[in-house]
Amino acid sequence: ALPGFEHFFAQHLFAQLLKIGCLGDSCTFGTYLEAADPYPSQLQHILETRFPQHLYEVKSFGRCGARAGHGSIRSYDDKQYRQAISYGARLNIIMLGTNDALSGPIPIRET
Q1: How many CB atoms within 10 Å of residue 25?
Q2: 67 in Cβ contact with 23 (< 8 Å)
Q3: Do residues 59 and 93 make contact, with C-beta atoms less than 8 angstroms apart?
Q4: What is the pTM of this model?
Q5: Residue 61 CA to chain centroid, in angstroms?
Q6: CA–CA gap between residue 97 and residue 68 (Å, rounded)
């Protein structure tokens, strides 16, 4: 199931289309997977199955190599970030961390 999502969708079911943006790394993008297998596609299917009376559009903004640290996905210069913002989603899901774990710890900076 989708912990935490059921409450959100129970409270925010609209007559119009509910747009959901998925930002993240290759796990979001679906590297080496068929088109129906990345989690944004699975989420679209789950929502249509569990709440068929409403319209959903789940769009993936995944990018191979994206990281939470080092300014990767947080940068206004990042193409996927700009596309996700202009998409106008009511809900955005961010899934990052896989590449950060592979590249070692992110240095802490004082501001």
Answers
A1: 22
A2: no
A3: no
A4: 0.69
A5: 7
A6: 6
